[in-house]
Amino acid sequence: MGDQRQRGANGVGAPSEQWREYQGAPTGTDVECEGWRQEAALRVLNNNLDPEVAEKPEELVVYGGTGRAARSWDAYDAILAELRDLGDEETLLVQSGKPVGRFRTHEMAPRVLIANSNLVGKWDDWEHFHELEAKGLIMYGQMTAGSWAYIGTQGIIQGTYETLAELARDEYDGDLGGRIVATGGLGGMGGAQPLAVTMNGGVCIAAEVDEARIDRRIETGYCMEKATDLDDAIARARDAAEAGEPYSVGVHVNAADMLEAMLERDFVPDVVTDQTSAHDELEGYYPSGYTVAEADDLRERDPERYRAESLDTMARHVDAILDLQERGATAFEYGNNIRGQVQEHRGAADAFDFPGFVPAYIRPQFCRGRGPFRWMALSGDPADIHRTDEAVKELFPEKESLHRWIDLAQERVEFQGLPARVCWLGYQTGDATGPDGEPLTERARFALRINDLVREGEIGAPVVVTRDHLDAGSVASPNRETEAMRDGSDAVADWPILNALLNCAAGADIVAVHDGGGVGIGNALHANNHVVLDGTDLAERKARRVFTTDPGTGVIRHADAGYDEAVEEAQESNVAVPMRDR
Predict the structure, then answer these.
(1) Partner of 469 for a Cys bridge, out of 135, 143, 171, 338, CB 3.0 to 4.6 A?
(2) Helix/strand/coil percentages in the chain, nearest 5
């Protein structure tokens, strides 16, 4: 039905009346569905499309240029109808944002299975993807957009914080005090950068071509001020750095233009990175020389010229980063594939002469199965998240950095949509065991504690746990999470597929598999999952399994690649790695 209707200029049709009524996730303890697992799916989908959370919710775009939560508004309505009718032993199939089937399974099976943007290898490129998208046959799901796990800029904040904290430990004296970070992009992902810098004690200058995004980050507390021009921004940044005060300022300018202007002024920041949506040269990145309105008009009139000018600007952008690195700046790519774009489309042999953030700073944590664990309070009550904050600190009194993060997040990270939190937890079991003596991972311990709090009534409604795509074992992304693997297995995509299959077997409530993510079609494969903690014994069984299997795949993936830290983790936590164990 839906695919036969006029799809409209943006390809998705007119916004749903249901969405207009919801304007975000339903909250409270009354449910529309047959059970909380189905209700959780309905709420997280609508949370993705909350105007406080999504970039262009009226177009179903959540973040990252064209990352959508559903393929069309007809498909959105159909998904909601299916979720309301879905039984406790049924599974709904969603193909690139469109519900396509429903089957009887069993209570431990996922209630929703999602596959987004996946193409057969020979056809796995933007050109073929856009042909199919124009026909209404596929959508770009990014990762947390299409898996209904996005929680706004608050979702990426700790990953950015952790990256910069590790950089500060490696390069400086443990924090960024007195250091200036120059970057670009204040969209759904990049908008976390100014706050992550200041939370690490540093100073941030962030370029953004869309002035409304700067204003939004200031309104939500992610960026402190807006400069009148670059000279003003540099002067403010220098004053703050000299005073040793955390500070962030947005500049209404194209990122490539800003970095070139810094070079012209002989101004070299201590750190330079970027988080523009460079993975998508047509819908995500803005070419130099245009306002947002002018660029949008060019994209509509002449998409090929837009692509060419966008890629030309990216080439200048990468050259400027390399020049700043040569002059002494610490440079890294923050996962948007701008290096890959310039190397592939503009023949830049030196594009990868500055590293990606994962091999530079994050991989040792991945070896331990450590990564972003995020949870949402389905009640809509911030007090429920504050109770979980207390719980995680009680569970891990020895983790000083975790306590510091929770305290900073409570003080400085505003909720968007459903109240939510993120913290990095890993596999490590230590001496923790369940009632049957089985070792419990860090993530499982915390999930079980949340489930107990729901059961005991200390939390008003169930909590749904998911994660970000910056993950140890669920991603194959040669220009990002799996860049420069020790054994050369960067592009082996078996691992995210195994992760998804294993989490299905373990009982995750939603499991999703995607192509593309933040680096673009053909450049990554990744998986995600959700577990609903509703206080029941069933939720406890699911949580114990999924929060062992999910981080566990990160340990075995890196142990298989020969990383000593992962081998040590496997030995310390009794993770079976068959050919090594034998």
Answers:
(1) 143
(2) 45, 15, 40
